[in-house]
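Page 47, continued from p. 46.
Same chain as before, 144 aa.
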Amino acid sequence: MSVSSRLKKYCLDNKITYKVLLNKGFASQQTISNYLNGGTDPKGSFLERFIKEYRVSAKWLMTGEEEEMHNSIIELKPYSNQESVNPMNETITLYTCPECVNKQKEINSKQNEIVAQKKTIESLEKQIELLELCLGKTRGNGSG
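Result:
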């Protein structure tokens, strides 16, 4: 399958007509028609813009080899504390590669551990404060 064939397939699968490409100023009607009908392979400037505009895999478009990027989904949910990275309290869905998903899961796990440890420390500090108050009252009562 040629670059033109993959371009045409992508356009058909995503309902992108030559008129859409023409209206967006990608190239002339004849040039776009040649690209989509296999008359000629698209030029670099056309491909670069198409890849950026439609977020198509450059590797797939050029070689036909699939990239793993389109197979994985990661959802970032807002943190429950005040230091939220997502102040709109929405779930954000990102498409990324499996390695990135695993790395993000590791990071999220570490962040959750840190939050839990901070809560434990805060709880222990409160207990120490209460014990010091109790001890201070006991010592104060015994010496007075």
